Here is the input.
Amino acid sequence: MSIVTSEGGLTVFGYGLCAAAVILFLGTASFWHSASSHSRKLSTKQLVFCAAAMALSFLTSYMKIFAFPYGGSVTLFSMLFICLIGYWYGPLPGLMTGLAYGILQFLQEPYVLSFFQVCCDYVLAFAGLGLAGLFYKSKNGLIKGYLLGILIRGAFHSLGGYLYWMDYMPENFPQSLATFYPIIYNYSYILAEGVLTVIVISLPPVSKALTQVKRLAVS
Here is the structure.
């Protein structure tokens, strides 16, 4: 069953799949958040922390260590700040912050081929970072949650790549790996930044500082 029409738009099935993905995201986050002891409205201070984290993520997304030719870059830890919200407050606040951040990224640099492409490249991909909050009660929860968040982001970018960006595959790309081009392309920069981030946040001084910030954020 086709998801995309020949003109690059969505079929009825495609729209249904997109709606189902959004519902699944919200339902999963809602379930985990409601099952936790932190199921309450965010305080003004917590909202300020969410806004500050989103602003830092947006700012550092333009501090690029390396940029890829068809979109995507290794940035100065921009994904970490969205994941931190999930780690501090749980999956639902993290998801909503990531969702808002994705919309902000879209408004700043919009590229539209279809509604579903926008969902894959912006809305769902960055909202997925907030699901780092699924591990907010776990030991080493920040690292586990961060890795989950970036893997989810990469999955949505890769899905969009299969549906819309295969024509941009370089001619000299190994044909034996052509089927995996969107996965290789998107995860190459996402995992490169991920490895750098995990190394940095694992350093004792950084880990201690993040623990102190968390105490301030959740107190």
Notes: The radius of gyration is 18 Å. The chain is about 65% helix and 5% strand. Strands lie at 64-67, 73-75. The longest strand covers residues 64-67.
